[in-house]
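Progress report, Aim 2. The chain analyzed during this reporting quarter is listed below.
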Amino acid sequence: MSPRSASLLLALAIAGTGLCHAADGDPDPTFGTDAEFPGYGFYLNPMVQGELDAASAVAADPTGRLYYFGNLRDGEGGSRAAIWRLDADGWFDYDFGEAGLRTLVPPCADGWLSHATLDFQGRPLLAFSGCGDFEIYRLTPEGAPDTSLLGSGRLTIAFDMGGSNNDRPMRIASTLANGIVVAGSVANADTGDLGIAHFTADGGAAPGFGNAGRVTLPFTWRVTRVGGVHPMPDGRI
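Predicted structure tokens for the chain:
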């Protein structure tokens, strides 16, 4: 098994620990077992070996199903965002997409899925980098575009602070009201600021948050990574 495969397996195993019935710290023998790894709490990486595929996030819905988000090479020099949905026991959910897999074309030619999560209705939220602006998709739990978001399931958030105007979302989260919070790097004339966008569930700017739902925080260095974003119950981020 390649190191990349092992890391993907570990990500899935860690995501499933909240559903374990084994002792703390032990692999859950009921999760994702197969003929190659019986009883070890994980299963073989489903991505094709030798391709430059990458995992972005794992999230669980209220029923315990797992959504596994990543980028999948299409075999023709391009890539697609990929979502696997797994049952709570780690097996592919054949009611989702094709045999548990749903793929999506990024919103631009150079786009890739940088992060994803589920809102409190179990709807996938996907953040794409590489398109110049923060590009967000929201899907139904079954993987179709959620047209309750601006009629298309797509939200574009432009900061346009100058420089290259190449803004990159890095983390996405949902509020208790199913609003959308995105944090990432925002280009300006000199460097890259931290940018945070807060929009409502229907795609409008969150009232009272920054300038039209956008806030930038300057740093003396370029923001190249955001480790996480967490909306608090009282509305703070």
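Confidence is low (pLDDT under 50) at residues 1-20. The longest strand covers residues 66-73. These observations will guide the mutagenesis work planned for the next reporting period.
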